[in-house]
Amino acid sequence: MLMKFRATAHAYGNYIDTEQILPARYCLSRKPEDLVPHLMEGADPEFAKRMKKGDIIVGGHGFGCGSPREIAALVIKWAGIRAVLADSFDRFFYRNAVNIGLPVLEVLAVQYGIKTGELVEVDPDQGLVRNVSKMRGFHCTPIHDFVKTLILTGGLEDYARRRITGGQRI
Amino acid sequence: MGRTLTEKILADRAEIEEIQPGQFILIKPDAILVTDESAPDAIESFKRIGARTVIKPDRVVFVHDHLVPARDAQAAETAALMRKFAEEQGIANYFEVGRSGVGHLLMLEEGLAVPGDVVIGADEHTCAQGALGLFAAGFGSQDIAAAWAIGETWMKVPETVKVELSGELPQWVGGKDLALKLAGDLGPDAARYKAIEFCGSAIERLPVHHRVALCAMAVEAGAKNAIIQADDVAASWVRPRARRTLRLFKADHDARYEETRRYDLGGFAPQVALAGRPIQVKPVDALDKVRIDQVVLGSCSNGMIEDLREAAAIMRGNKVNRQVRMLVIPGTSGTLKQAIEEGLIQTFVGAGALVLPPGCGPCNRGQGGALAAGEVAVTTAPFSLAGCMGDPAGQVYLAGPAVAAVSALMGFVADPRSVSI
Ligand code: SF4
Asked: What is the pTM assigned to this prediction?
C-alpha cells in the first residue's frame, strides 16, 4: 500500500527532455554529489537551490524524451524527489523510473492545474491527485501492483535478486 | 473482442487469456539483443543483481556494431568485457568483429528473430525488426540484466495505431520515405508508447528491406514498436535462415485500433527531414538548394543489399561530387561479401566513395565520419536527434538511398526524379 502524501510541486511544460533534466556535459560522473546540484538545470537553473527532499516534479507531454539515458531518472531519485507527475512520459524514461522505484504517474492535463510552489496531495493507490492550494482535483490510473512491488522493493534489480534467492513470483 | 497483431503476439508469449492496452504483463522474451555500446551497463546491472548465470543463454545475441573496430583503449575494454562475459555464460550467438554487423539487421539475416517472436534489444531502434511480423522493442540495461537473471521482463501492453498504405510505390520512393512522412505527420505524441501496425495493399508487395526502413523510424515518433504481418514475402525471405519455427499471426478483423491513418502511395515524393526533435519533414523538391559535405549510406534502416543496389544503380559510371565525402556502410559482413560479389563495392569505390566496416558507422556519434561545425550531411540512418553525427552545429538531413546517392553526385540535396542518371 503506497501511502497518500503531500508535497510541494515544481511545474514544467511539454517535452522536458533528458538534456534539460541533466545536461550531457555532467554525465561523465556517476556520483550523486556531482549530479544532484545540476538536476533540471537545462529547464530551471534555480531548481537545485529551491528544491527540498520530498518535493514532486510536474510535467506536460513527453516528459523525459530525448536521448534515453538512465541517469536522468536516477538523479531525480537521488535528489529525494518523491514522484514525477506528467501528462505523458517518454517510454524509456518511464521504464527507467519504474525500474529504480521512482513513482511516475500519468495525470491528464496536470501541467495546467499545478504551479511551482503549490501544495499537492497524491494518492497513488486510488489514482487521485489534488492541488491543495487551489482545491483542484485530477484522476489518473492507479499505480499498478507490479509497479508498486518495484517501488516497495526498491527497483527491478532488487526484485530480480529476490526472485533468484527467494524465488517468490508475484 | 478482436486483437491487434501486437496484442496477439504479446498474449501468446505471456500465456494470458485476457489482454488490453495499459495492462502490465510479465513476458519471457524469445531473443535478447545486446550491442557493444549497451553491454557494459547490462553486465554491470547483472552483477548488481547478484546473478551468476544467464537463464537460456541461447536466446542472447551479442553483436559488435557501434564501435567497430575499437577506436581506443576504452572501446577495446568494452569489447573485452563482452567477450569474457559471453564465454563465461556460454553465449554462442556472439558475433565478433569481421563476422558482425548492425544488430537489428544481423538478427533478421541470421534468422535469430523470426515471425511471432518477442525480441527485446538494448538499443532504441530494435523496433526495426518488427518488419518480419514479430514484436521487437528497445529496453534499458536493467531490463536486459533482469531478463538474463530471471528470464522475464515486464511490459505495459501498448495501444495500436494502424497505418494503411495503398497504391503503387513510385520510382525512387521507398520504405524510408514513407517512414519519414509518417514520423513528420505523427509528431512527438500521436504514437508515443504505442505500437504502429502497417497494413494495406501496398504492404503486400513491399520487399523486406523497405519494411525494415519503414519500421526502423517508429521510435523517432516515440512509438514502442512497429510491426508488419509476416505474409508470404516475409516468410519466404526468413524461412531458409530461421533458427526457430515461424509463428504467423494475423490481426483480427474486429481488432480495436486507437487510430487509423491512410496513405495512398500514388504520386508520393521522396522525402527529406532535418534531424532534430520534433522532426521537420518535407518532399525533397520543396527543399531549396542545400550544399552538402557528407553522405552516409547504410545503418539499421537502409544497410541491406537491396539498399546498396539502389544507390549503386545511380552511381555506376558517375563520380561523387568533388566537395562531398561519401561513406558507404554495408549493414552486415554478409551484405559486404554479397556487395563485393555483385560488383557494388567496385562501383562505390570507383565513384570515389569510402567503404566503412559493417556496423553503425558515424550514426549516433559513433565510429568515424563526424561532422565539423557548420557542415551538412545526408544520411540514410533513422536517428533524428540533433547533433547525431558529431558537432551539434552540424546539420543532418535524413533521406532514403536514392536521394542520398544522387545528392552525393550533385553536391547538394537533390531529387532523383529530376536528375537524368
Ligand atoms: S545504425 Fe544508428 S540508429 Fe541504427 S542501431 Fe546503429 S546507431 Fe542505432
From this structure: 0.96
